[in-house]
Write a structure and sequence with these properties.
protease; 7-stranded mixed beta sheet; thiol protease; 7 helices; OTU1_Ubl
């Protein structure tokens, strides 16, 4: 009989193990302990992840558990990982970008976490890098794509060109589809609602974008069975994720949930409200801005309208928000 193959994701590594139908659950636990170096842990499996019952492990046989092809998440149970910061920016190796368009406001670690007892852990904010590709990076992390910005931009561009009847000039902010598709591949161009709609169609997933300032949830892909959640703070996108321990690495996050269960949305709105209280948003209608393109640093404006006007006149896309404190 073919062996049972199981993917095991621990706090610092992921391995594939092969076991036999007649093994006991206790034998599997011992093997996982050996492979991960974690002594006391819980196991979660399935989608969304649910705790694997380890009671009577000595007598339970693996065959009936139907674990072949599954991924088991190893959740340390001794609390040794608790307390690690959850706000570090996504670490994706990229070349040094030109002047960055808006740096998202920073908040204390405590403001980025809400307990989620029913979900078995916490809902956390995963802060994206300030490189004008934050939306693409945030979504790429949901789908497990390494270095996603260029790939996802190219996929969106191709999708728009394949569906000119849907993504017409009117829909594309009065821009011809070919021109829009070319521009969105530029690493300095921001992504927004058009790109989120495309990504929902491309990947078959519902995308819920929560606006920090207004608490509004914009949903793309109402007919999809699975959802992810992004957080929009006026000029920046971050990813919302579920973790079972605050010290677990980002690659052990849960980032997809069933779309017929709104409990994650309610928790995400609670997190957004907490972030609003910490002023983790930018009012694009009233913000004071400056162009950061060399030779244009003396240009000052107020609000998104001035920014768009300046971009149309000069082609400049790098801006910073000026503090009025």
């Amino acid at each position: 009989m073919a062996p049972i193959r199981i993917r095991v994701r621990g706090p610092s590594s992921a391995v594939t193990v092969e076991v036999a139908d007649e093994w006991t659950l206790a034998q599997l636990v011992a093997l996982i302990r050996e492979k991960t170096g974690v002594g006391n842990f819980a196991l979660k499996s399935g989608f969304p992840p649910a705790a694997l019952d380890l009671s009577d492990a000595e007598s339970r046989i693996l065959g009936p558990l139907k674990l072949n092809g599954d991924t088991l998440m190893v959740i340390p149970a001794d609390g040794s990982l608790a307390g690690a910061a959850s706000t570090a920016a996504e670490q994706t190796p990229e070349p040094t970008p030109p002047p960055k368009a808006f740096i998202p406001k920073r908040v204390d670690v405590d403001e980025t976490v809400v307990p989620w007892d029913e979900g078995g852990g916490y809902l956390v904010l995963r802060v994206m890098a300030d490189d004008n590709s934050c939306m693409f990076t945030a979504f790429g992390g949901v789908m497990g794509i390494t270095d996603p910005a260029a790939q996802i931009r190219a996929e969106v561009a191709a999708h728009i060109l394949r569906h000119p009847e849907k993504y017409s000039k009117v829909v594309l902010e009065n821009t011809e589809p070919a021109v829009y598709a070319h521009r969105i591949k530029d690493p300095q161009r921001w992504g927004g609602s058009i790109e989120l709609q495309c990504l929902s169609e491309l990947y078959g997933i519902q995308i819920c974008s929560i606006d920090v300032k207004y608490g509004r949830v914009d949903t793309y892909g109402l007919d999809k069975d699975t959802r992810c959640v992004l957080l929009y703070s006026g000029i920046h996108y971050d990813r919302i994720a579920q973790t079972f321990d605050l010290g677990l690495p980002v690659d052990m996050d849960v980032t997809q949930w069933r779309s017929d269960d709104d409990s994650v949305l309610e928790k995400a709105k609670e997190l957004a409200k907490k972030l609003k209280s910490a002023n983790y948003y930018t009012d694009t209608q009233t913000m004071a801005i400056r162009c950061e393109v060399p030779g244009c640093e003396n240009w000052l404006g107020a609000g998104q309208k001035d920014m768009i006007k300046h971009t149309k006149e000069t082609g400049h896309t790098a801006f910073s928000e000026l503090s009025l404190d």
